[in-house]
């Protein structure tokens, strides 16, 4: 399978496992899983293609359950799902990659989840730079996650290493 085909399948998986399952006639369980056989039939791909995309995805966006019969996106949903991710203690500092045009709003109201369920935070600067670069020249904010945690904010860690929290008040943000 060539690289272009893999990217195309990955984008379709993101779309339907996070945002628009009904568009291809699949259903997600309350915790985000869908049946692998139904998914490959709906997408017109083979199990081998799916396995390859899941295994080689640059951000490990998708995960099979322990039986290999169900698959879900590890984060990033806009449809209502409860992933039941483990609550975790974050490192002292996490990072958020964004762009300059959002900074005034972010410094006024903090980081908000926007259309997703949670604010997505990165464990290191290079990852945050990549996230911000999706929208233009990246600006990286440092998040005082240790203090947030001490103040009672809940953090969860997705299966692919993205830190999730509901809201980051501006007082925990500083520029890098
Ligand atoms: C910004 C991708 C105005 C925020 C990435 C961001 C990540 C505000 C945008 C994952 C704001 C939301 C998530 C406020 C936040 N006012 N703008 N108060 N608070 N923003 O895409 O973090 O490829 O929903 O800075 O790599 O960019 O999908 O979040 O620019 O891991 O797997 O509003 O998505 O991963 O954008 O990216 P997003 P994000 P995948």
TrEMBL record:
Q: Which Gene3D superfamilies does the annotation name?
A: 3.20.170.30, RNA 2'-phosphotransferase, Tpt1/KptA family, N-terminal domain (1.10.10.970)
Q: Does the keyword NAD apply?
A: yes
**Pfam family for this entry, one:** PTS_2-RNA
GO biological process entries: tRNA splicing, via endonucleolytic cleavage and ligation
> What class does this enzyme belong to in the EC scheme?
transferase
Task: Enumerate the GO terms in the molecular function aspect.
Answer: NAD+ poly-ADP-ribosyltransferase activity; tRNA 2'-phosphotransferase activity
Q: Does the keyword Transferase apply?
A: yes
User: What InterPro entries does the database record attribute to this sequence?
Assistant: Ptrans_KptA/Tpt1, RNA_2'-PTrans_C, RNA_2'-PTrans_KptA, RNA_2'-PTrans_N
> What are the record keywords, sorted?
NAD, Transferase
Known EC number(s)? 2.7.1.-
What role does this protein play?
Answer: Removes the 2'-phosphate from RNA via an intermediate in which the phosphate is ADP-ribosylated by NAD followed by a presumed transesterification to release the RNA and generate ADP-ribose 1''-2''-cyclic phosphate (APPR>P). May function as an ADP-ribosylase.
What NCBIfam families does its record include?
PRK00819.1-4
Family designation: Belongs to the KptA/TPT1 family.
HAMAP family recorded:
KptA (MF_00299)
Q: What is this protein called?
A: Probable RNA 2'-phosphotransferase
Give the species this sequence originates from. Kutzneria kofuensis
